[in-house]
Write a structure and sequence with these properties.
Two copies of one chain form a homodimer. With 203 residues, chain A is mostly helical. Chain A has a domain of 139 residues: Orthogonal Bundle (Tetracycline Repressor, domain 2). In chain A, α1 crosses α4 and α5 packs across α6. The longest helix of chain A is centred in the last third of the chain and has 26 residues. Chain A is elongated and about 60 Å long. Chain A starts with 11 loop residues before the first helix and ends with a helix. At the A-B interface, α8 and α9 of A face α8 and α9 of B. Chain A binds a DNA duplex (30 and 30 nucleotides) through α1 and α3.
Chain lengths: 203, 203
DNA sequence: TAATAATTAGAACGAACGTTCGATTTATTT
DNA sequence: AAATAAATCGAACGTTCGTTCTAATTATTA
């Protein structure tokens, strides 16, 4: 069972536990990214994590909790790093850059995880869904605030829609990005910033 | 079995056949949109289409062919209507508008189908995948050409990336659009055009 | 070292899956 | 009306699924 509350002294045993746990999460990310949540079987996740089938159920109550842990961890990290970046940005343009760079950089370093987060949101239900939704809404609020600053006093730009469109551009990347053709992240970021900054600040 | 070659006289029987067929496609679109391709069972598709389970296999060889027929029909129509719109557009701005309006209008009238097309591309394999990929590449080429015209002789804008970003914004809509809160399509289109047109034509 | 707790392995469960097949019903043709 | 073809149905197949349970193994504590 995942324990997100207590943090006992990091004994060797605990370190082993957490290693296994993140190995399972990594295996789940790769498997679900390739086969989809419904298509990915717990058996294949276990095989990739080099653990028995029932071993998975020692760390997670069920398959859905596995997906939840993956999304919750990935999204939380994404929000955290964005907040750090935003704290050291001053102008609206710098803040927009923080948003875009943060998303792209995290993306290239966690291809499978982010693909799962983007593609399998609706595979969660009930409490799991609500909790992830909350984190995503927090992320969205951060971005919307930045966009409002970029827009300034200009009329004709709806920050809500602009943020949604920007999210689309960012989240769509996993559909076409090929890590083997190591496209320069700097170029990606520059292009997207150019379009959205100019697009929202033009008279 | 789907027959896309011969087109015999539209007897009453044939009309019944095609009615059933599109009823199945509609049921499949709704079911797959809600449950995902792997999650949607042929049994539930059949139930929604008011036909027996084995009845599906009279019209389609297997489940994947059902998904293929859905995507092939939807995407082909999308490309066709875009070509018509582009033919009657003159300036680059009008053409960009054609792209965006076409996508949005088709989207609101075919919510389930477009969601499946966007979300289940990778659920196809082999020949099915290649064939749909071809259509999508044709669509992409059309849009890229328009973007090249909008850009004109300006440097610093990569039409390829710009097209991909635009596709992201367009395809992401299914994640947040709520038909019950009938958001005005005109506003959506206007906002997106404003961002991308200004974004690509600014000095 | 003995007792205790944490972790893993293996077998088994019922349920649901995609697909097939022969029989039956419905529509068309002779 | 009889013969033929098209369309539908219901039952069944083998497979895979998520999950559970008990026993064995490993690590920690006393």
């Amino acid at each position: 069972m995942v324990n997100t509350q207590t943090k006992p002294a990091p004994t060797r045993r605990n370190r082993q536990y957490e290693k296994r746990l993140s190995a399972i999460l990594k295996a789940a990310a790769k498997t679900i990214a390739r086969e989809g949540y419904e298509g990915a079987s717990v058996r294949r996740v276990a095989a990739r994590a080099k653990i028995g089938l029932s071993g998975i159920y020692y760390y997670f109550h069920n398959k859905e909790e596995l997906l939840f842990a993956l999304q919750e961890h990935t999204f939380s990290t994404l929000v955290e790093t964005l907040q750090e970046r935003l704290a050291s940005a001053e102008t609206p343009e710098e803040k927009l850059r923080a948003v875009i760079d943060n998303h792209f950089e995290y993306f290239v370093n966690n291809l499978d995880e982010l693909k799962v987060c983007v593609h399998e949101i609706e595979s969660l239900s009930g409490h799991y869904y609500k909790q992830v939704l909350k984190i995503r809404q927090g992320y969205f609020a951060l971005v919307k605030k930045v966009i409002r600053e970029v827009r300034g006093r200009r009329t004709g730009i709806d920050p809500n829609l602009a943020a949604l469109f920007l999210f689309g551009s960012l989240n769509w990347v996993y559909m076409w990005y090929d890590p083997r053709k190591n496209t320069e992240m700097k170029k990606l970021s520059k292009q997207l910033r150019r379009i959205y900054f100019n697009g929202m600040t033009a008279p």
